[in-house]
Amino acid sequence: MTARTLTGERSVDLTRIRDLRLLTGFGYGRTFRAVVVRDRNGARIGLTTLRSQRALARAPQHARGDAGGGPRVSRAARAHLGRGVRRHRTIHTVIIFLVLTISVSLYMGLVLELAELQ
Q1: What are the two backbone dihedrals, phi and then psi, of residue 72, each rounded to the nearest 5 degrees?
Q2: pLDDT (tens digit, 9 = 90+) per residue, 27-74?
Q3: Cα dihedral angle (48, 49, 55, 58), rounded to 10 degrees?
Q4: E strands within the chain?
Q5: Which terminus in the chain has less CB density within 10 A, N or C?
Q6: What is the phi/psi pair of residue 51, to 5°?
Q7: Which residues have a Cβ under 8 Å from the Cβ of 69 and sit 6 or more positions away?
Q8: What is the pTM of this model?
Q9: Which among 104, 103, 98 is positioned nearest to 24, based on CA atoms?
Q10: How far apart are the first and last CA of the chain?
């Protein structure tokens, strides 16, 4: 599979997938999700379209991961691709949202505290 990135075109061999992860982001009232694929050569691409994710959903069954076993697939990525329990994706999204909210709150608290010192 080949995709365009900011640094040019990247190719990932879907028969040699090392791992799959789900990347979740928030913005403008929406949730953005990308399945990040890494092959044995270390090339990574993030797949955001439904068409590319459907093609990827079939790939882990035929892929050979490290030491002859299958690739490592996170529970959230498996659920997002329709192969796992849906609540794993929900749990992943809630955890990401809480981490983002807490880190922004701590950052703003630190900025306000430093502003008072001056």
Answers
A1: -80, 125
A2: 888 989 999 998 888 888 888 888 888 888 777 666 555 555 678 889
A3: 50
A4: 2-5, 8-11, 17-27, 30-39, 44-47, 72-73
A5: C
A6: -65, -45
A7: none
A8: 0.77
A9: 98
A10: 54
